[in-house]
Amino acid sequence: MAEAHSAVAFSFAITHEGVHVNYDREVLHVIWHSGVRSWRRNLRRFVNNVRCGVFPASLSSLALTVGGYNAMYLTRDTYNHGVDLSFGFIDLLKKHVKLEEPAKGVVCCTVSAFAVWFGAFMFMKYSLRILYVYKGWMYEERGRGRKLSISTKLWILAVKLLTHFTRPMLYSYQGSLPRLPLPALKDTMSRYLRSVRPLMDDENYTRMEGLVKDFQKGIGKKLQRYLLLKSWWSANYVTDWWEEFVYLRGRSPIMVNSNFYGTDAILLHPTHLQSARAANVTHAAFLFRRLVDNQQLQPIMAQGLVPLCSYQYERTFNTTRIPGIQTDKIVHFSDSTHIVVYHAGRFFKMPCYYKGQLLNPMELQMQFEHILADESVPDKGEANLGALTAGERKPWAEARNKFFNKGINYASLETIEKAAFVVVLEEDEYDYSPDDPTQLDRFGRAMLHGKGYDRWYDKSFNVIVMRNGRIGFNGEHSWADAAIMSHLWEYVLTEDLISIGYKEDGNCNGEVTCNLPLPTRLKWELNQECQIAIDTSFRVAEALLNDVDLRLYMHTAYGKGFMKSCRLSPDAYVQMALQLAYYRDAGKFNLTYEASMTRLFREGRTETVRPCTIESSAWVKAMENKSVSNEERAKLLQIACGQHQKGYQDAMCGMGIDRHLFCLYVISKYLEVDSPFLNEVLSEPWRLSTSQTPHGQTSKMDLSKNPKCISAGGGFGPVADDGYGVSYIIAGEDTLFFHVSSKKSSPVTDSKSFARQIERALSDMRNLFQSLAKK
């Protein structure tokens, strides 16, 4: 066993003949390379942090400035002519420096040059931050024949001048991003009232106006002052409270309720070998981690000019959620050279590096095949151990403190929590068939919750590999938003399908070039009391997953291309289709959530867009009214899409509604004051919760050349007991994927029926525009 081999790597014995030292040169060689890798990594991180800290200037510009100053000063002293760029500052410094020439001149020139460079750097940095405060570009009309305003053109020119000369790293823009602005209280109140108007009758709306008025003139002013102070003091007035109170303080299961999932590129099936697919995906994931660690991953740029905040990438790997009695915490480890593999009820520690080098895909495939060939049986309770992470958080925290705080259980749990990520080698097969849509539904359910015990739901993400080579992931939500995992997953699929590839027989490319460190079984000592705790959590998880009603709908009649030909935003178009579908399904309008992002600001995460507007409800009613002409319907749709797009833009620019109200509510709880308005607003259920899965975040993914490489996206569980969770991805020009979830226990929801309503709504919208085109 590898543990035994490591244990005798170094030993000594004392006899009457003296001290005898025994050591294993191979193991000590591995230890040496591990240390060297760690030193290099820390040094590289330090250098990269310095480079990011001086952006948009560069270290080379500092060297040029210092060298230029010294050259010009020495030239002036040698030939008695030239310009003193310091305007006498160097001569002044020389009076206070007690060194001999030429060292005195070099030191004073260097100090003077550094001062000039530092001043220029600070001017550039804060000029860039001021420029990024401008959001007028967001509201400019786009498309053919539409011109930019003079102010936006000048802004673009200034941004390009400041950023053109230095290649940015992943975190280069962090110091230049502005803080999230705090909206005025009256503006948020006005937006809120407008958002709920289509949801309330006149009597309830008048009542709500009274609550808003009382809040705005009363306790709201005090809460706003405290929040204003927090917005000045912290980098982002929302993010820390959002992470703590929305995610970490929740005591209900994170499986289904919080975790989300992603799926394979279902139109391609590059290999049916489970070990080969797992190896390629694992190798690609570690390549992505290397890009993040070295800050070589290019930051995402909106419109190619404005950076999105990158701070969430830091916790993608080597991260786990630790349960607590009252609140959980996120723990991120600086490095990890292993993953944990779950297969057939057993956990394995699988090394992925040897002598400081990442194993190639073929070497990783050999590791996975070793695990697949292992016929050992699980320890008592081991097979269902992951159910602890799927059940209620408090019982898991109590079990962790009681049964995993020492000995072999502590060591094995620490191995899982310190792993880069978890790979699950499934024993079941899942696939896609256009003739049997239920296959895709079952695949989605496997990704969302599995069997309730065969994932480690606390890890930042689990890669799931089916027996026939299909893949997906399950992601924990507190450490980052779905866009970060989508970026990683898109990169992994691109590397797997395009860059790395497979041999003709389905095996990985490459050869085994080293003596592989074998995977090792994790051992557990789970007593009867611990097994009861595991079984209790499993029953909670099983009841939760059995209540999930999930439908994956692939829409191929048309896609983004047709929507743009109608001169409408594709996202707004889809949201209007969802409004029409929901009205037909429920017979009424309801509070609708669409996730937007605030990553244009430092440490930004998400904001809520409210797609159910006065304009969208007017269009929906027109679609259901046979007396309204198609011309009028199309006009109302354009108005509704325009209003939705403005709401989305406002949310991205920090002028949303719900995060502001959420933070005011948190402050009211800290101050122990009661607000009827906030209590009512924060208790309103989101019966239609939606989110678009982003794609196109990697430059390697060219869908025009590889149209089948697109992932089917991912999804999440329902937010309300009597509502729907809808995730969608606008996949290329002609395809849409919808992931519709609800609860079987609800008598008013049916995911399959709602998917059919989405299909009908999209068809009616296309027919609307096609009928106008014929006239």
Explain what this protein looks like in three dimensions:
Helix content is 48%, strand content 13%. It is an alpha+beta fold and 775 residues long. The model is unreliable at 1-10 (pLDDT under 50). An 8-stranded mixed β-sheet has the order 15-9-8-12-13-14-3-20, with helices on both faces. It has a 6-stranded mixed β-sheet with strand order 16-22-21-19-17-18. The protein has a two-stranded antiparallel sheet with strand order 1-2.
Cα separation of the termini: 78 Å
Largest sheet: 8 strands, mixed
Query: Which value, in Å, is the CA radius of gyration?
Result: 30 Å
Low-confidence stretches: 1-10
| Total DSSP E strands | 22
Approximately how much beta-strand content do the residues carry?
Answer: 5-15%
Mean pLDDT across all residues, rounded? 89
Query: Total number of helical segments?
Result: 25
In short:
By secondary structure, the protein is α+β, with helices and mostly antiparallel strands.
Which key phrases capture this entry?
775 residues, alpha+beta, 22 strands, 48% helix
What is the topological layout?
Layout: H1 2-7, E1 10-15, E2 18-23, H2 25-53, H3 59-79, H4 89-94, H5 103-133, H6 150-163, H7 185-196, H8 202-217, H9 219-233, H10 239-248, E3 260-262, H11 274-293, E4 301-302, E5 306-307, E6 319-322, E7 329-332, E8 338-343, E9 346-351, E10 353-354, E11 357-358, H12 361-373, H13 387-390, H14 393-403, H15 407-417, E12 422-425, H16 438-448, E13 461-465, E14 471-475, H17 482-500, E15 520-521, H18 528-546, E16 548-555, H19 560-565, H20 570-586, E17 592-597, E18 606-609, H21 614-624, H22 630-652, H23 658-671, H24 676-682, E19 688-692, E20 714-716, E21 724-731, E22 735-743, H25 751-774
Parallel strand pairs: 8-12, 12-13, 17-19, 19-21
Antiparallel strand pairs: 1-2, 3-14, 3-20, 4-5, 6-7, 8-9, 9-15, 10-11, 13-14, 16-22, 17-18, 21-22
Transmembrane segments: 114-134, 154-173
Membrane topology: Multi-pass membrane protein
Pfam families: Carn_acyltransf (PF00755), CPT_N (PF16484)
